[in-house]
Amino acid sequence: MERRGWSRDELLKALQLYLLTPFGRLHSRNPDIKRLALELGRTASAVALKLVNFASLDPTLAQRGMSNSSKLDREVWDEFFGHLTAALATAAPSQAESSFVEAGREFIFDDILFPEGTDVRRNAKARRNQEFFRRLVLTSYDYKCALTGIEATELLVASHIVPWSVNKDVRTTPRNGICLNALHDRAFDKGYLSFTDNFEVIYSHDLPSVARSSLESFGSRELRRPSRFMPDLELIALHRKNRFHGE
């Protein structure tokens, strides 16, 4: 296959796939990478290498990729995140919400991700880009609850630190998300638990003792860190101030 340079549009597609791919799956055997390679007319190895190059630019990763990214790679990365809260998406994932747990996931992307979350009128109000936000957050936590390690995807929630209804600018920002199981998510959403700036769990004095004991019995005392997109401490502080009922 003739070697050619990467276009800006191709790099955007590669970056979008990178953001939805766990670091350990950045290899040419990944079915999603193979599908993108076929679409772009490139080898799976070339696409995998480009995703690893993007990893070298990712400041949220503890483990980095190779540092041979190009100037255009950096420009696309900066441009992409520069639109973090300003762009609107018109495309949605091509599969229904219940299908994202399957090994071979296929996506349809708009040019820019992390758009401003908007409400769309159907038979009922629906949250556009909510499902994409969920995929980003769960990928960052390797599809495991950050407090219990539960891996049953059907029981996991991409919990908003600042609720969807409160601030539209961070609705789909991945650093406004934490992967929790449904029970801890409910307690977090209702203000019965929160986190310190060291990500230690704190429980509200309004939480009944039996409920607190139950939550503590199968949850850790400290939030497990994600592989990327660490929760924003300013948003955590807002949660403690505005949502948490106090210790």
Give a description of the structure.
The protein is built from eight helices and six strands, in the order ααααββαββαββαα. By secondary structure, it is an alpha+beta fold. The protein folds into two domains: 8-82, no CATH class; 97-242, no CATH class. It has a two-stranded antiparallel ribbon with strand order 1-2. Strand 1 (118-121) and strand 2 (125-128) form a beta hairpin. The longest helix is centred in the first third of the chain and has 14 residues, at 44-57. Mean pLDDT is 78; it is low at 84-112 and 123-128.
- For the secondary structure, the number of strands is 6
What is the beta-strand fraction?
A: 5-15%
* Count of DSSP-assigned helices: 8
What structural class do helix, strand and pairing data support? Answer: alpha+beta
Q: How many domains comprise the coordinates?
A: 2
Uncertain spans = 84-112, 123-128
What's the average pLDDT? 78
Helix content: 25-40%
Give the SSE string: HHHHEEHEEHEEHH
Rg estimate, integer Å: 19 Å
Oligomeric status: single chain
Main sheet overview? 2 strands, antiparallel
Reading side by side through the largest sheet, how are the strands ordered?
1-2
Shape: elongated
Terminal Cα span: 62 Å
Question: Which secondary structure elements does this structure contain, and how are they paired or packed?
Answer:
Layout: H1 8-19, H2 31-40, H3 44-57, H4 71-82, E1 118-121, E2 125-128, H5 130-140, E3 156-160, E4 177-181, H6 182-189, E5 193-195, E6 201-203, H7 209-218, H8 233-242
Antiparallel strand pairs: 1-2, 3-4, 5-6
